[in-house]
Design brief:
With about 160 residues, the protein is an alpha+beta fold. It contains 3 helices and 7 strands. Strands 1, 2, 3, 4, 5, 6 and 7 form a 7-stranded mixed β-sheet that branches.
């Protein structure tokens, strides 16, 4: 029995090592780029689709609803086609990487509305990513409108 277990050990170790973790030196840069590419893809722009940047099980929470994988992009693209203007400016990202899983949070400050009534807007956002098929992919995305900042006091 012991000889059989010892003979199988290298096979099991090889299988466990089959999914290599990404290079920690470049992981945070790659995670941030994936998130920025995701926002371009949400507009239906760029060279990469939402499906290239997300896992098969990806879902998101936005505007009080759950959206499966590409459904959020469909809603945003339709709104843009209907004339809604959405301007995003993703701020600095707080990114944590542990092996083949990463998570990030950031503030997104911009504007949104139907012209000419474009108003300042802000969102608090976060994402969980996994390293899959040689690249980072978003597995979960959350966006919530931020409370408007109070005007600075005029003393």
């Amino acid at each position: 029995v012991a000889a059989t277990l010892l003979a199988l050990a290298p096979i099991q170790m090889a299988q466990a090592q089959a999914t290599e973790c990404p290079d920690p030196a470049t992981a945070t840069v790659d995670v941030e780029q994936t998130i920025r590419d995701f926002f371009v893809a949400l507009r239906g722009e760029g060279d990469v689709s939402v499906y290239d940047l997300t896992t098969n099980s990806m879902y998101s929470y936005d505007v009080g609803e759950r959206f499966e994988r590409g459904a959020l992009a469909d809603v945003i693209i339709k709104a843009l086609q209907d004339g809604v203007e959405i301007n995003w400016n993703l701020g600095p990202m707080d990114i944590k990487v542990r092996g083949d899983v990463a998570w990030s949070a950031w503030e997104n400050v911009g504007s949104a509305g139907m012209p000419p009534d474009i108003r300042p807007a802000g969102w608090l956002e976060s994402a969980v990513l996994v390293h899959e098929d040689g690249r980072w992919k978003i597995d979960f995305f959350h966006s919530q409108r931020a409370r408007p900042k109070a005007p600075a006091s005029q003393d």
